[in-house]
Amino acid sequence: MADMVVVRKEGLYCVPGQFYIDPWRPVERAIITHAHADHARVGHRHYLCASDGVKVLQARLGAVSIQGLAYGETLEHHGVQVSLHPAGHVLGSAQVRMQHGGAVWVASGDYKLQPDPTCAPFEPVRCDTFITESTFGLPIYRWQAPQEIHDEINQWWRRNAAEGRTSVLFCYAFGKAQRILAGLDASIGPIICHGAAQALTQVYRESGVALPVTVMVGDANDKAALKTAMVIAPPSAAGSPWMKRFGDYSDAFASGWMLLRGARRRRGVDRGFVLSDHADWPGLMQAIKATQAERIIVTHGSIPVMVRWLQQSGWQAGGFETEYGDGEADDSAPGASTAAGDVSHA
């Protein structure tokens, strides 16, 4: 039987359904797994995404034609039954289930299995062929419990506030910023959001996600309170004139890549917090096993290592070369492409 999904120059293509999944070049019909810029780009004629992600996609792409599909709801297109299922990555993230001619394929996009109050949890979907990411597809990547990281962040903030020093935490503006906000102890001090993070945080609130009160720096008139503030900012703000208003501050970076000492050193920050919106190695293996798929196709990340390990473990495994980012870039501009190797949204 011919493959249901193949790689074309435009992106991942469902052959019988005649649609693309997260295409990187303009197409007629695109199913978008989530609104990060390496997966959701401008230029497509028709967009389909999970209903939970419509507002985020509109905020990032502007006036585009978007159809929302509730998780678990099924539609048929050219004989292919399509449904979307939670990926646990960010608000509105989805796996794409495709059924045709007795075969079931699932394209997972990006996903994580750790708990996250800002998005629907990952849902294993039974299939014959599973297309998985491998951003952190090496055995060295094993995450601490999220609550432990949130506790570390609050302890760092509390210590800085006691010393009269602003805390600046660099993180990806979509997904990571809101996940961090959900774990902050707002009793420590005011929370300031860079404009890129504030706009998307408001979209989360409008979608029913509970987050603490945040203000823009222009609205923070109490200079004394500023010394006890937590500032959430995208990596692009580092070293910019925007940072000068905070005077003496301590900075940190939140990313799965912070597990690597070299990544922390290159960022040149005081602290690194290992918090990722992608599955670690045990999470990837757990997700793959839960699908009960016989065939696994690995995309963006550590493709050769994961393919070899899966083959040695008894799976039929191969890889797709895609244009998705290996890491997570700071892409506050709608539709911006992701630079491989940047480590700002993992």
Strand proportion: 15-25%
| Oligomer type | single chain
Helix and strand composition category: alpha/beta
Helices and strands, in order, run as EEEEEHEEEEEEHEHEHHEEHEHEHE
Helix content: 10-25%
Name a few traits of the molecule:
346 residues; alpha/beta; seven-stranded mixed sheet; six-stranded mixed sheet; 8 helices; globular; disordered C terminus
Write the layout of secondary structure elements.
Elements: E1 5-8, E2 11-14, E3 19-21, E4 29-31, E5 46-50, H1 54-61, E6 66-69, E7 74-77, E8 80-86, E9 94-100, E10 103-107, E11 129-134, H2 146-162, E12 166-170, H3 176-183, E13 191-193, H4 195-206, H5 223-226, E14 230-233, E15 249-254, H6 261-267, E16 271-273, H7 281-291, E17 295-301, H8 303-312, E18 316-319
Parallel strand pairs: 3-4, 4-5, 5-6, 10-11, 11-17, 12-14, 12-15, 13-14, 15-16, 17-18
Antiparallel strand pairs: 1-2, 2-3, 7-8, 8-9, 9-10
